[in-house]
């Protein structure tokens, strides 16, 4: 692991604060020995201000799953049934004990949400005719992080939110559907921890394993933008507590009006706590098109959004086939 330089002067302390982040001068950033330093892979251990992760975790559970955003449940439920996942799940989550046999709330059945240009899991493409407004608070957060990593012109155009439980994993893949690979892919994690595997340009190259904890940010750019990667394991946070300490910290009492961080009520936070004590949320944010670029004309049938599929690279524990891990062990 090697230290990585950040572009401290690209983000004012006020803009960092507005996004719920520490001043960039206080962040730590690391790269991996043997990988190009910039543009490359950058790991930033939790740079959020105390209490501010709560806002992002709550948005991922209460706000971003709402229409017009798209989620896996839309694939086999009617539109009116998925309108208010939060409202429909509150009671169930609030009363949840520790038994695995209790019925799962809709929020616990959520596997992914897409934002902006909605990723089509079947065609593995984005298209101009399936796009909804990207949440402005998340776009603002992404802009600050990208700028701190040296990407001043990053535009948040697509987001994929992955919702994990202790038995979930994410299969090996490359994020190559975006048409502009010169912009980074930003990844934010909240809740329980995970193991992240960063592989090579070829599927069978030995990966580097690293922990990702709540609040950690990962930036894949340059050479590492098209590296294979996967999440084979979700783990309880290393502090051994219900929630990691950084999520227990109370909201700052002095949030100014210009902040995109909103106060999270105790009632809402109790629901989030119930969810996050056994779950991890990962948000990846991508720029799809280069400035001035448009989607190339594609055959009509490929452009149509297939609402029947739930395909994605999520896997249940029993299905995971770890070619590398199997052959290594
Ligand atoms: O959950 C993670 O940490 C990785 C997510 C990811 O690889 C993706 O959404 O493409």
From TrEMBL:
GO terms for molecular function: broad specificity oxidative DNA demethylase activity; chemoattractant activity; class I DNA-(apurinic or apyrimidinic site) endonuclease activity; DNA N6-methyladenine demethylase activity; ferrous iron binding; tRNA binding; tRNA demethylase activity. It is found in: Nucleus. It catalyses: a methylated nucleobase within DNA + 2-oxoglutarate + O2 = a nucleobase within DNA + formaldehyde + succinate + CO2; an N(3)-methylcytidine in mRNA + 2-oxoglutarate + O2 = a cytidine in mRNA + formaldehyde + succinate + CO2; N(1)-methyladenosine(58) in tRNA + 2-oxoglutarate + O2 = adenosine(58) in tRNA + formaldehyde + succinate + CO2; an N(1)-methyladenosine in tRNA + 2-oxoglutarate + O2 = an adenosine in tRNA + formaldehyde + succinate + CO2. The keyword Nucleus applies. One of its GO terms (cellular component) is mitochondrion. Its main location: nucleus. Fe cation binds at residues 173, 175, 229. Keywords: Dioxygenase, DNA damage, DNA repair, Iron, Lyase, Metal-binding, Multifunctional enzyme, Nucleus, Oxidoreductase, RNA repair, Transcription, Transcription regulation, Translation regulation. Its cofactor is Fe(2+). InterPro entries: Alkb, AlkB-like, AlkB-like_sf, Oxoglu/Fe-dep_dioxygenase_dom. GO terms for biological process: developmental growth; DNA repair; negative regulation of neuron apoptotic process; neuron migration; neuron projection development; oxidative RNA demethylation; positive regulation of gene expression, epigenetic; regulation of mitochondrial translation. PANTHER family: ALKYLATED DNA REPAIR PROTEIN ALKB-RELATED, NUCLEIC ACID DIOXYGENASE ALKBH1. Monomer. Interacts with DNAJB6. This is Nucleic acid dioxygenase ALKBH1. It comes from Pelodiscus sinensis.
């Amino acid at each position: 692991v090697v230290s990585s330089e950040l572009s401290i002067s690209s983000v004012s302390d006020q803009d960092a604060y507005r996004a719920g982040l520490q001043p960039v001068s206080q962040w730590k950033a690391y790269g991996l020995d043997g990988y190009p330093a910039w543009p490359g892979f950058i790991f930033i251990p939790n740079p959020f201000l105390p209490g501010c992760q709560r806002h992002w975790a709550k948005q991922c559970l209460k706000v971003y799953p709402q229409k017009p955003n798209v989620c896996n449940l839309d694939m086999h439920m009617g539109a009116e049934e998925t309108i208010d996942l939060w409202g429909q799940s509150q009671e169930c989550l609030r009363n949840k004990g520790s038994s695995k046999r209790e019925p799962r709330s809709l929020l616990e059945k959520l596997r992914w949400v897409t934002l902006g240009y909605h990723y089509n899991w079947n065609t593995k493409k984005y298209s101009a005719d399936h796009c909804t407004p990207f949440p402005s608070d998340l776009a603002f957060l992404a802009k600050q992080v990208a700028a701190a990593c040296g990407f001043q012109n990053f535009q948040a155009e697509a987001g994929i939110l992955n919702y994990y439980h202790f038995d979930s994993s994410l299969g090996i893949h490359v994020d190559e559907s975006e048409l502009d690979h010169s912009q980074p892919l930003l990844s934010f994690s909240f809740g329980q921890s995970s193991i992240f595997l960063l592989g090579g340009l070829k599927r069978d190259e030995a990966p580097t394993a690293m922990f990702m904890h709540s609040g950690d940010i990962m930036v894949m750019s340059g050479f590492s933008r098209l590296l294979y990667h996967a999440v084979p394991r979700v783990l309880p946070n290393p502090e051994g507590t219900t929630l990691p300490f950084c999520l227990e910290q109370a909201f700052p009492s002095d949030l100014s009006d210009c902040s995109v961080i909103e106060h999270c009520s105790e009632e809402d936070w109790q629901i989030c706590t119930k969810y996050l004590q056994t779950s991890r949320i990962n948000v990846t944010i991508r720029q799809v098109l280069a400035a001035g670029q448009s989607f190339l004309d594609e055959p009509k049938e490929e452009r149509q959004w297939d609402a029947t599929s739930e395909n994605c690279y999520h896997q249940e524990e029993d299905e995971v086939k770890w070619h590398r891990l199997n052959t290594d062990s």
